[in-house]
C-alpha cells in the first residue's frame, strides 16, 4: 500500500490523522461496543494507516471511557435512557474532534455505539464552519436511520436518535441533556444522505418524508447497483462540499459483520461497503469518519470477521486501493 494519491480539498494537513478512540456503549443496552476501539487497534488498523498509508497519527493512546463524566443518578428524561451520561460524553467528544478538525487534520473516531456521532459530527461541523465558512454534508451508512426524536423512539436508546439532535429536529434548552448542542454544531437536513437503510421505524419514515431527506435504501441498491447509488448520493450533496462519513457496521449484511447490537439481514456486502468508502475518498472531500457499533463480545473468538470488516472500511475511506 502507498500513501493516497487523491488531493484532499478541505484539509490543510491532509497527511495528518487525528484518532479518537471512544469506549462508550451507553447509547444502547448491550455491553461490548466499548471494547471495539481496542479490538480494531490490536488487529493492526493504526499501524496500517501509519506504515502503509503514510499518515502521521495524532492519538493520545487512550480508549476514552469517560468514567469521570458518569452521573451518579441518570433517570429517563423525555423517554431517553441514560440521557445525562450520553450528553456528557458526546459534549466532551465534540470538543476532542473539534480540536483535531480545527487544526486541519482528518478525524477518525472509533466507537462505541452510534450515539457518539452527536459528538463527532457536531465537532467537525463547527470546525469546518470556522475554518472554511461553509456547511458540511453527512453520509450516514446504516441499516437504520437513527433519526428518531425522543418522542418517536420505542426503545428510548439514544443510538437511535443522533441524527434528530444533529439536525435540530430534536432540541433541548440549555440546562437539559443535549442543551449544549448549538446551531453552529448542527447540520442541515438537505446536506444529509443515507445509504443502506432497511429497518426504519414508522415515525422515522414520516420524518424522512416530511423533511425531504435523501435516503437510499437496500431497495435502491438492488435496483440501481451500488455504483449508481453512490453517484446519486454524492450528486445530491454536491461535488464541492466537505463530507463527514458516519459508518455503522450494521449497514453490512450480518454475513460480513455479525458482531453488532442490532443486525438486520439483507444488507450491503463487504465489497459494497468498501466501495462506498473508496468513492467517498475519491471525491477528495472527506474530512472525518466514524466507525461504530462493532461489538466484539457478540461473536466467539472476539469478532474477527466484524473487526476485519471494520478495518477494511476505514482503510478504504483513507485511500487504500485495490490496485
Ligand atoms: Mn446507526
TrEMBL record:
Q: What is the reaction catalyzed?
A: L-arginine + H2O = urea + L-ornithine
Its UniProt pathway annotation is: Nitrogen metabolism; urea cycle; L-ornithine and urea from L-arginine: step 1/1
Recorded hits in Gene3D superfamilies, A to Z, give: Ureohydrolase domain
List this protein's GO terms for biological process: arginine metabolic process; urea cycle
Major enzyme class: hydrolase
User: What keywords would UniProt list here?
Assistant: Arginine metabolism, Hydrolase, Manganese, Metal-binding
InterPro entries registered for this protein in UniProt: Arginase, Ureohydrolase, Ureohydrolase_dom_sf, Ureohydrolase_Mn_BS
**E.C. numbers:** 3.5.3.1
Cite the cofactor comment. Binds 2 manganese ions per subunit.
A Pfam match is Arginase
Gene Ontology molecular functions: arginase activity; manganese ion binding
Q: Which cofactor does it need?
A: Mn(2+)
* One Gene Ontology term, aspect cellular component: nucleus
Keyword Hydrolase, does the record have it?
A: yes
Q: Which domain of life is it from?
A: Eukaryota
Protein family per UniProt: Belongs to the arginase family.
UniProt cross-references to PANTHER family, sorted A to Z: ARGINASE
Q: Which NCBIfam families match?
A: rocF_arginase
State the name under which the record lists this protein: Arginase
Q: Can you name the source organism?
A: Zasmidium cellare ATCC 36951
Amino acid at each position: 500500500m502507498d500513501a493516497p494519491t487523491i488531493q484532499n480539498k478541505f484539509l490543510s494537513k491532509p497527511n495528518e490523522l487525528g484518532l479518537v478512540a471512544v469506549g462508550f456503549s451507553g447509547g444502547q443496552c448491550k455491553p461490548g461496543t466499548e471494547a471495539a476501539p481496542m479490538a480494531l487497534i490490536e488487529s493492526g488498523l493504526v499501524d496500517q494507516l501509519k506504515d502503509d498509508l503514510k499518515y502521521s497519527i495524532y492519538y493520545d493512546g487512550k480508549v476514552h471511557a469517560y468514567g469521570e463524566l458518569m452521573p451518579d443518578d441518570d433517570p429517563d428524561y423525555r423517554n431517553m435512557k441514560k440521557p445525562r451520561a450520553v450528553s456528557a460524553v458526546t459534549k466532551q467528544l465534540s470538543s476532542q474532534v473539534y480540536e483535531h478538525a480545527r487544526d486541519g487534520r482528518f478525524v477518525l473516531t472509533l466507537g462505541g455505539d452510534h450515539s457518539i456521532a452527536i459528538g463527532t459530527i457536531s465537532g467537525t461541523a463547527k470546525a469546518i464552519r470556522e475554518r472554511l465558512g461553509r456547511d458540511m454534508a453527512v453520509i450516514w451508512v446504516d441499516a437504520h436511520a437513527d433519526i428518531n426524536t425522543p418522542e418517536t423512539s420505542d426503545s428510548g436508546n439514544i443510538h437511535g436518535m443522533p441524527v434528530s439532535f444533529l439536525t435540530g429536529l430534536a432540541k433541548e434548552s440549555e440546562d437539559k441533556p443535549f442543551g449544549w448542542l448549538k446551531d453552529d454544531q448542527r447540520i442541515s437536513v438537505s446536506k444529509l444522505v443515507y445509504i443502506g437503510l432497511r429497518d426504519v421505524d414508522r415515525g422515522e419514515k414520516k420524518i424522512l418524508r416530511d423533511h425531504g431527506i435523501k435516503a437510499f435504501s437496500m431497495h435502491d441498491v438492488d435496483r440501481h447497483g451500488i455504483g449508481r447509488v453512490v453517484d446519486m448520493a454524492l450528486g445530491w450533496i454536491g461535488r464541492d462540499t466537505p463530507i463527514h462519513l458516519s459508518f455503522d457496521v450494521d449497514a453490512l449484511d450480518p454475513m460480513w459483520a455479525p458482531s453488532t447490537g442490532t443486525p438486520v439481514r439483507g444488507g450491503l456486502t463487504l465489497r459494497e461497503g468498501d466501495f462506498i468508502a473508496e468513492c467517498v475518498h475519491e471525491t477528495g472531500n472527506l474530512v472525518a469518519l466514524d466507525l461504530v457499533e462493532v461489538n466484539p463480545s457478540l461473536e466467539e473468538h472476539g469478532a474477527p470477521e466484524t473487526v476485519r470488516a471494520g478495518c477494511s472500511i476505514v482503510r478504504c475511506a483513507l485511500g487504500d486501493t485495490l490496485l
